[in-house]
Each structure stands twice: as C-alpha cells, then as structure tokens.
Amino acid sequence: MEYLFKSIACLLLFLLVHRLFLQQEVLHRFNRFFLLAAVLLSFLIPLNQIEVPSLKQAHLVEEEFSQPENFSVNEGFTPTEIEYSNKPEAFSNWDWSKLLWGIYFLISLVFLFRFLRNFQLLISKINSNIQVNYRGQTLILLPENTLPYSFLKYIFVSKDGFESEGLSDAVFEHERVHVVEKHSWDLIFVELLLIPLWFHPGLYWLRHAIRLNHEFIADRSAIQRTEITDYQYELIRLAQSGTPSALVSTLNYSLTKKRIQMMTKTSKPIHVAWKFLAVVPILGLIYYGFSEKVIAQSDKRNSEVHIYSGGNERSENTYDLAFYLDPSGKIYQEGEKNQKDHELSELDQWL
C-alpha cells in the first residue's frame, strides 16, 4: 500500500508540473514524451533505493538503548490472565479482505469488458465496411453520419459525407497526423493501465492530458494546410457529434477555448529556457522524495550495541549486555563474538 500511494502521488506531481509549466508552451511532441515517461517513472521511482548516512540513525539507536526508563524492570510484575469471551459475535469470523478483493476484481472485470468491447467494435467496423485508399491512407466508410476519427492506421469517415462533399485538406491532415504518429497506442496503453488501476486518479488526468496534447499536435499540422479561422470554424461545425470511443482520436475531443488559443500561440525561447530551469530541480526533488531511503552500510567489521540497566551511567565498563551485528546480518552476544573473532584470527593465520 505504501508503494501504491507513493506511485499515485508521484504521478500527480508529475502531471501538476506539466500543467503549470509545460502544457501552455508549444512543446507538444516533447510533452508527449514527458507524459508517457511520467507514468513509467511514477511506477519505477518508488522502487529506487537511495543510501543515506547512517550516523544519525546510529545515534538514535544508541539513545534508544541507553535510556534507563526503556529497560527498567519491575520485580513485582506477574503476568495476568486474559479472559476470553465465549459469546459469539456477528461477523467475527468473516474475512472482510475477501469482500474487498472481490469488489476490486469485479470492477476490474467491468473495465476489461469495456476495453474489449470498444476494441471489438472498432475491429468489426474495419472488417465490415468499405476500405478506400485515399492519399496514402486507409479510409473506412461508415454508413452512419459521424465526424472523422482515427484508430491505429485507419481513418473513419461518413460514407455519405465523403461521397457528397469529400474530405477537406485540414481535416484529412489532422487525422493523418494521428495515424502517422501512432497516437492510438498512447491511448491503448493508458486504457490497459486503467483495467487493474481503475482507482488511480492520476491515470484519468493523464488520459485527458495525452488526448489534449494529441489534438495540439494534429491542430498544429492542420493549420499549415488552411487558414486558422477557416479551420476553427470547421471544428465548431463538426463539434455536434460525440466521441465514438475512448480508444480513438477525433476532432471533437475537448474543443475548448484553450485549444483554439493554442493554434496561434508561439513560445519564446528565453521563456521556455526559464521554465526548464525551474522544472529540473522540481523533478529532482520528486525523484529524491519518492525513492526508498536505506541506511548506508558501515565499513566497520561489526557494530556493537550496549544495553544498560536502570540507574547505571553510560560507561564502557558498566553495561549489562553487549550485542554485535556483523555485515552478514547475524547478531552475536559478547561471548559468541569473541569465539567468532578467535576462529577468524586462526583462519587468517592459516591463510
């Protein structure tokens, strides 16, 4: 659970950095790499181990073992009997963890079914409708009235609309970019993660950010084929239809003021450079903060711990017990340690 919480928090912080520093800049292809790397790093960073100095930890251990109150012994202490009630309690033997696991797997099955259903519907449309080679791309002519969208290497368009009006250069270029840059694989990757991790809030935010960034990339290429105002008008006209599937890339996704404004935005190199300078230390803090901290191993042959009884002062000669921890992880009492040192000494002489 600790790993899972760290992973979720790590991805949320990565996405917050993207939202505050990178999303508003014309760095769409870099942002695509950043978003995909963020989800992978969010799972890997909590597994990373960073060694920290052991001096402070050793001091805390010495303080803990040397405090008199921690080792005071009550001579008059006698164990008391614990009375157990024989009265049956409702649900006392019920394992609630099984119920929670059952709910988790049931919801995961629902997400798996949804993914397979959407995938199967798209494959069925590909196999059951007319395919046309158009400017080097494969069009799927659909009988229903729908806006153009793409999936894998296919572009889906309305058969009646294509035969009567054709496909404008801007719309075709928009969908062609989705196909050529393989945007569908990004969406499939996130949808697969959502099957076991349907409770992960960062993955829903990630899916939204990836889709919006895909649209920025496609829009930037499309406006090179037509006037910006004409393209924006066409987007608004096509915005009447809904998104057919969570797996596809479509013109209608997230048609917001932010997206339209991004079409005419340019980024100043000096402004981008300052943002990168701010982002790098933040990412370093995320890496250090969510990595697992381990105590650095001491160079000494073994570590010694003294246990003092109540009322004794800290002195090398007044401790009651001494334990030794060697690098292999074994713990020895004082007599055992001396015997081990004697055996090692004889072995060194023989070698």
UniProtKB/TrEMBL annotation:
Q: Which residues form the signal peptide?
A: none
Residue ranges spanning the membrane: these are 32-50, 99-116, 272-290
By what name is this protein known? BlaR1 peptidase M56
| Species this chain originates from | Algoriphagus hitonicola
What keywords sit in the KW lines?
Membrane, Transmembrane, Transmembrane helix
Pfam families in alphabetical order: Peptidase_M56
Coiled-coil spans are none
Task: Please list the residue ranges annotated as the Peptidase M56 domain.
Answer: 169-262
**Cross-referenced CDD domains, in alphabetical order?**
M56_BlaR1_MecR1_like
The question of whether Transmembrane helix is a record keyword is answered with yes
